[in-house]
Design a protein that fits this description.
alpha/beta, six-stranded mixed beta sheet
Length: 205
């Protein structure tokens, strides 16, 4: 499998990559499962509601049991009353995680990368650096390469590059070890450094 190599001036050749990672058939069901699982595993159980025992209400009976013509009532904390507790309250201990086998996760990542290659949305660059942490410098460099929305994956994140990308709403810079299915499907284009290609091949084989 050959990946397109570019530089500041445009096309600069090709880079050899393994078919196992960049030439795999697209499996839509697997990709969907991997993306959903990744998002679910990042979710925190921060929702908390009160049941009838946790609601702060008086335990006095609102009215006598018989003779009023109204339905019998025991406490105002009843879930049937406004301001009462929930019948099945959400708990902060709720577990949203999905289990995905390691082989499935790697196959899903390789499937996404392969589709990006087939759709001509993945490029490789020798290296990507900026001399100073300036947003304008990085924006000009990416514009010269013909990119707008872009995910940059490097072997190791350069601090200047990271700081320069923070104010660009449609650009994200991550290390190859942090590559994930959500980031890969979110951006219209992906730019890899040569070393990042090698790292991804080692991770996903």
């Amino acid at each position: 499998m050959e990946l397109k190599l570019i530089n500041d001036k445009g096309a600069a050749g090709t880079v050899q990559a393994t078919d196992e990672v960049f030439g795999r058939d697209y499996n839509e069901a697997l990709v969907h499962q991997v993306v959903v699982a990744y998002q679910a595993n990042a979710r925190l159980g921060t929702r908390a509601q009160k049941d009838r025992g946790a609601v702060r209400h008086s335990t006095r009976k609102p009215w006598r049991q018989k003779g009023t013509g109204r339905a019998r009532a025991g406490m105002t904390s009843s879930p049937l009353w406004r301001g009462g507790g929930k019948i099945f309250p959400n708990s902060p201990d709720e577990n949203f995680s999905h289990k995905v086998n390691r082989r499935m996760y790697r196959a899903g990542m390789a499937s996404i990368l392969s589709k990006l290659v087939r759709e001509d949305r993945l490029r490789v660059v020798e290296e990507l650096r900026v001399d100073q942490p300036k947003t304008k410098m990085l924006a000009q460099k990416l514009k010269a390469m013909g990119f707008e929305g872009l995910l940059v994956i490097t072997d190791e994140v350069d601090q200047n590059l990271k700081l320069s990308s923070r104010n660009l709403a449609n650009v994200e810079v991550i290390a190859a070890r942090q590559a994930n299915p959500v980031a890969l499907v979110r951006y219209p284009n992906v730019l890899l450094t040569k070393k990042a290609v090698v790292t991804l091949e080692e991770m996903l084989k």
